[in-house]
Amino acid sequence: MKDGLSLLPTRTGSSAEELSARLELNPVRAKILIVDDDQRNLLAASEVLADPAIDLVLANSPEEALRQALREDFALILLDVQMPRMDGYEVASLIRSRSRTSRVPILFLTAHNKEDIHIFRGYSAGAVDYVFKPIQPLVLKSKVDVFVDLYLKTAEIQRKAEAEKQLLLENLRVRGEKLAAEQALRRREEHQAAVLRGLPIALYTSPFSGDDRRLQFTNDSIERITGFSREAFADSNLWGRQLEPDDSDRISAELSTVLEAGAVTLEYRWRNADGRERHILDQIVINGHENGTPVELFGMWFDVTERKELELSLQHASKLEAVGRLTGGIAHDFNNMLSIVIGNLDLVKSSLLGNEKALRRVESAIEGAHRCAELTSRLLAFSRRSPLQPRALDFTSFIPGLIKLLERTLGERIAISADLEDGLPEVCVDHAQFEAALINLAVNARDAMPDGGALGIRIKRHEAVAQEGSEQVHSVEITVTDSGTGMSPAVLARVFEPFFTTKEAGKGTGLGLSMVYGFVQQSGGTIAVDSNPDQGTRFVITLPGIAGQSFSSNELDPGDAPGALNPMNGAGRGVLVVEDDADVRSTVISTFEALEFTVFSAQDVDEALRLLQAEANIVLVFSDVNMPGTMSGIELGHIIRQRWPDMPILLSSGYLREDQDTNGFSLLQKPYRAAELIEVLRSLLSNAYETILLE
């Protein structure tokens, strides 16, 4: 750009030379803020990062760090996690909350909190990376150099963009000068064109009239951006015709302010020649005579579609994660309440033998409660907190039964076809959840085909590219297609959002596809959807295959056992119930007492351990997973395994967090029926206490 400036005529050369000199005399310098309450750590980091081209700013307290962040622009902030009065997470959150510092990369330094939950908290607070103490100088220097280099390059691009703008304005101002400047101006324009050809930018001029949007572009990059040639924009209707109608009124209002403001920045959606919608950033300034009379508009088009799509993707992911966390908490409380309702109804039912009318009413109430439980189960599936029972699944034996079920469910107007590739690997999934996911997709397809249509299920092997030194990864691809009405881009973008539905009120909860999404994610797979209006919809689920594992596809689910449940008699043996919710605890106690167990109860882990130490008659511990205090039911189970290795343990939970592992323990999902509890108790106690089982 310096050479281009030197070619300007004599009367404008001085200002261009001054601009070039300012760029050379004021090179961009990177500043790094190092925050640590230990002066020794500050000194050590300073020595590692010492560089003549970098300015290091040191802060030994959170307050000083925030003050420095407000005063200066930093390329990177190195932030200690453990500090007095305010930890690094809080400081990072405050820095992120201010618009000026929201985009400054934060690198956490920590000697503690290396667990995944703390690292996740750090990334949630705004960290881009972690460096663990003791610091390896080479690692720290390498990571810092990446961010410094990015900062310097970004600053240089901004400086060059500003210089480019100045050059363009200078070019317009000297237009019409003496013939002696023509050759210099032409060479300058050629130089600029070479630069602009590589950027998603197009320059134009336009008549100074709010109703006339004939755009005269100065280079051919507009055709690369939009698919329309420069000549096509001579049509004054083209720009308005391709403008998104929803943006039209807003853009017209903003354009009307350009005379008063002298410049305006517009952002709108515009359809290219191929029909695709692009996001355009349009920056406009007024070009006028020396006396100030406006002559024309000068504008620059920037295609910012990729940036907008990335922003929308990040917003969507953040929204799904937030809703997932919310639904987990709701499901926990809701399942506790349903446990009270179903448990007490089961107890009432046993006292109504012979009263058929009352029994029918109780069964109806229990059925309604289970429908609520099913809704909660969908919430948990979406939030990926639903406890799964994964087993090996053989598609050749599973799919025929599913097809028969779908034929009965979807009706005669839907033609169902299945195509299974030979030699498919097995996948390890929860059979019931997998079946529910495919049924959900099929039911949605049926609703999209009100006059009938075709539903296809195709299952084939999917070979992932193996990395060097690793084995080939085998996956299974399940494709579900329909010939229905399809979805618009707006609906497609929200298809997996919970509670989003296009059905009439009362026809759907909006949780079906979100449940499918959560189940697939929790099973280690991926799901994608492709759809267009009037062209049908195509869902593709990819699940990892299993090879050489000891899963048995014939293994029986606890809930699959046929036949009616036999009654159980506790025969006065002791059971310890550990539950923090008083109402739930009362219901569970009543259920065990109805089975003639002697019941001991505790509201937390400490009280439970005291009772186990004191009471020798306890033959079983039945504990909730999530309880207040420092220990959960899972940790209680591990302590019991160490002290009383022969003690049967049964855990119960309304929902499980992602960091909770119940492997090795029997788990009863809330809400549950008394019959389900009896079946699990029979399995747990049959070996050690066969006399408990009667009849």
TrEMBL record:
Its EC number is 2.7.13.3. Residues 264-316 form the PAC domain. The keyword Cytoplasm does not apply. It catalyses: ATP + protein L-histidine = ADP + protein N-phospho-L-histidine. SMART domains: HATPase_c, HisKA, PAC, REC. The modification 4-aspartylphosphate is found at D80, D624. Residues 188-262 form the PAS domain. It comes from the Bacteria. Residues 31-148, 574-685 form the Response regulatory domain. Residues 329-547 form the Histidine kinase domain. Keywords: Phosphoprotein. InterPro entries: CheY-like_superfamily (IPR011006), HATPase_C_sf (IPR036890), HATPase_dom (IPR003594), His_kinase_dom (IPR005467), HisK_dim/P_dom (IPR003661), HisK_dim/P_sf (IPR036097), PAC (IPR001610), PAS (IPR000014). GO terms for molecular function: phosphorelay sensor kinase activity. CDD domains: PAS (cd00130). NCBIfam families: sensory_box. This is histidine kinase.
